[in-house]
Amino acid sequence: MFKKSSSSILTIFLLLIASGWLIVMLWGNVQQLWATTLLYSYWRLLAALPLTILILYLTAITYYFIQIEIATPKTIFLHLFLPYLRSQIVRYLPGKVWGVLYQAREMKEKIPAHAVWEANFTQFTLGTLLSLIAISWVFIRQIFSSGTASLVLFLLISGFCLLLWKKWVHLFIRFFAQRFFPKHKIPQNLSGQKKSLLIFSSLLLEWVAYFLVWIVLLYSHHSFDDIIVLSILYIASWLIGFATLVVPGGILVRESAFISLGTYFGFDSGILAFYAILARVLFSISDIAGVLIAHAIFRKTK
Prior knowledge:
Blueprint: H1 2-26, H2 30-39, H3 43-70, H4 77-90, H5 97-106, H6 113-143, H7 146-165, H8 168-180, H9 193-218, H10 224-243, H11 253-264, H12 269-298
């Protein structure tokens, strides 16, 4: 009871801080937010929706590739796909671990609970590493030159590919996974280069689809260069929102972080607030629509 009460107090406290910070950043600039809201072409939202659903499905495919290495290569795709999609909606509950707990419960007859936790841990680690590479490029580019940032980006991505290809990333993750999940006997045979390539290819496609979403949303409003920067800043704000585990979907925290980072890079806070709301609505709708579409397609073959 005490823990639940403490969690609720922390959630309210974080939401109040985020709300206050949003008011400070938008003070005197609400007019720009309203003008952008009225002038925006909302057909772009509909055009971007299939891409956001594609991202959701690609993350499920990446999870599948990771899980067949951790649990068993004979794991049936649909046993993971539908519960994984539903868990992306469950994560909007206070405490994002509920999404993983839901997966573990839904998959318990096919996959050990420890394997579900380890696969989520692995997927989050790989995604975060790539996100930090992109975020590093944006900030290095802001502080130094584009040439320096491009060189650093090339070296970091090359290093990541080497780590994945040589299975060093797997070894690193499993080193910590065995300490987080000591009861789960992790298979000794790590995936070969072929499976590593499948994981990386799926991650790469996720990123391509993600950048295309932002291009569709903003291509006539900003230069291509600015769109890439904004999309990466949203990734940074997503990580910050994810870190606040007790806030449902990182709401308000993610938006506050996005506006703060964007103003540092010279973007208008009113316009940033609109983009933050637009992205929140788009990705939330895609989570729900993605689940409904998948169930409509696969309910007879489950």
